[in-house]
Amino acid sequence: MLRQTSDWEGTLWGKPDWADRPDKDSTTWLTRKRNEPGTVFEYNDVRVNALALAATLVWRKPLPEVLKTYIMDPIGASGTWQWYGYSNSWIVLDGKAIQSVSGGGHWGGGMFINAWDMARFGLLTLHKGNWNGKQLISADWIKQSTTATTANPGYGFMNFFLNTNKKYYPAVPENAFIHVGNGTNIIYTDPEHDLVVVCRWISSPSINDFLGKVLASLKD
Q1: Which among 176, 173, 150 is positioned nearest to 162, based on CA atoms?
Q2: pLDDT bracket for residue 182 (50, 70, 90)
Q3: Rounded to a whole number, what is the distance in angstroms from the first to the last CA of the chain?
Q4: Which of 84, 166, 169, 215 pairs as cysteine with 208 (C-beta 3.0–4.6 A)?
Q5: Residue 52 near residue 19 (C-beta atoms within 8 A)
Q6: Do the domain assignments include residue 195?
Q7: Is residue 164 part of a domain?
Q8: What does the alpha-carbon distance between residue 188 and residue 52 come to, in Å, rounded to a whole number?
Q9: Range of the domain at 184
Q10: CA distance 168 to 154
Q11: pTM of the model
C-alpha cells in the first residue's frame, strides 16, 4: 500500500476504490482486471485512506497527533497545519472517538499546510530523517522510501516521487525526489545541491523549467 501497488478493492467511508480517478467508460468500473499485488501501480486515494485507517489501528491514536508529536513539533513547524478526514470517517478506538484522516483532498479532508512547514519537512527528508542531530525518521526508512518501485520506477514509498533516469524532471539531478500535493504544491528535495524548494499552486508543465532556472541561478 505504501507503493500504491496493492490493488486493494473495496469501499471505505462510502467511497469505492473505482471512484478515485474513474475511467471514462463506466462499464469498466466493476469489471476491471484484478491484479496480483505488487505488479501494477495505480495512485488511488481510497487505498491511501485504507492505509491511514490501518496505521491508526497500529498507533492506537489519531495520525495527526502522531505526526505532531514525533515530527512536526521537533522540526519547529508552525502549528497552523491541519489534517482532516471526512465527516463520516470516525471510528471508536479503545473507547474514544477518533477521526481516520484522508490522503487526498479532492473529497474534502486531507492536509492543509503552509510553505514554511513544507520546507522544514523537506529539509528533514533531505537530511535522511535527521534534524539537528536527532534521528526522527530512521535513515533506513528514507532509503526504502527513495528506492524505486518495480511497477513504477518513478515512485518510492507514499508521496516520494523519484527522478529515476531523469524522467520526472529532466532539468534536475537523478537523485532528487519530490513530495507532491494536490494543487500542484511540491517540495523539491535535492541532495546533490543540498537544496529544498517549495512550489505552491504551480502549473505542472512549468515545474521542470522552473527548477532548471533555480539550479542555473546557483551557478551564477
Answers
A1: 176
A2: confident
A3: 43
A4: 169
A5: no
A6: yes
A7: yes
A8: 24
A9: 126-220
A10: 7
A11: 0.94
Sheet of 96-101: strand order equals 96-101, 82-93, 110-112
| Greatest Cα-to-Cα distance within the chain, rounded to the nearest angstrom | 60
Distance, CA of 192 to CA of 176 (rounded, Å): 8
In a domain, 184, yes or no: yes
Residue with cell 478506538: 93
The yes-or-no verdict on residue 220 having pLDDT over 80 is: no
Q: Which amino acid is at 34?
A: R
- Which pLDDT band, with edges at 50, 70 and 90, does 103 fall under? confident
Residue 158 lies in a domain: yes
Task: Count Cβ atoms within 10 A of the Cβ of residue 40 and give its class: 0-12 exposed, 13-18 middle, 19 or more buried.
Answer: middle
| Per-residue three-class SS string for 144-206 | HHCCCECCECCECCCCCEECHHHCCCCCCCCCCEEEEECCCEEEEEECCCCEEEEECCCCHHH
Tell me the C-alpha to C-alpha distance, in Å, between residue 81 and each of 51, 108, 161.
Answer: 21, 15, 22
The total number of structural domains in the chain stands at 1
What are the cell numbers at 101? 484522516
The whole-angstrom separation of Cα 97 and Cα 100 is 10
Contacts of 140 (CB under 8 A, 6+ apart): none
